[in-house]
Amino acid sequence: MPNTQHALLRHVQKLNNWNPEHFTPFIISGRKVGQLKPFMVEQLQRWPRFFNIAADRVELAEDLGFHEHNRVLEEVVRELVSRGVIAHYLEETYPVIANTRRQPLALLDRGAAGYFGIRTFGQHLNGYVKSADGLKLWVARRAPDRIHFPNHLDNMVAGGLPQNLSLKTNLRKECHEEAGLPDALIAQAIPVGAVSYCCETEIGIKPDTLFCYDLELPSGFEPRNTDGEVAEFMLLDVNEVLRCVRDTDAFK
Predict the structure, then answer these.
(1) Which is nearest to 76 in space by CA: 32, 121, 43?
(2) 116 neighbors 105 (Cβ within 8 angstroms)
(3) How would you class 246 by CB atoms within 10 Å of its CB: exposed for 0-12, middle for 13-18, buried for 19 or more?
C-alpha cells in the first residue's frame, strides 16, 4: 500500500506545483481574478488604454462594468490569437471570477483561460458497472485530434463548464455528447464532491475545479460518443484502472 500511495501521489503533486514568483496578479475592479506570466504582461503593454501595468500587478484601467470588460477582453484576445500569441479562440466563454461563478466580473474565451490564469470549472463523471466479475469502469480514450492530451484515457464523461449553463444543464449536455446517455440515466448521477488543483504550465497557470459524479450503469449499456471527442470506450476492471493510474501516465 505505501508504494501504491506514493505512485498515486505523484499525480497530485504534479497538479499542485507552481511558483508565485513566476506570475503577476491580474486585477479587475480591485479584485484578483488571475495570474500572468511575464510574456503575457509584455503583450498587454500593447493596450495602455485598457491596462495599468505595474511591477506587482496588471489591472484593467478602469472599473468599466461587466459588459465593457467583456468587450475589452474579447478585443485583446482576438488580436493575440491573430498574432499567434494565444493558440486558439474556442468560441466558448468562461466566467472571470474573484469568488463564485454567480458573480463574474467579465467573460473570457476558453482558449485564453490558461494564459490569463483564471479559475475554470468542469464536470467529470465515472460510469461504472457492477458485474459478477466485480466492479468495472467505462473509460474513454480521447480522440487523436484533441488540443490537449490526444489519445489519453479519461473519465467516461468529462467537459468544461461554460458561463451560460447550470451544473444540471451542462452535465446533461456533456453526457449526451460524449457518451450518448439518455436523460433517464443521467438523472441517476450522484454528485460525489469536487477536486481542485493549481498547476503551472508553459503558457500560464491552471487553477481548476472539477465537479465529480458517479453513475451506475446497467450491464447491457454501451456508451456512444456523438461529438467526435472520444475515439473509443473500454469497460475495464477497477483494479486495472488503478494499476494504469499507478504505473503509467496513460490517463489525462
Answers:
(1) 43
(2) no
(3) middle
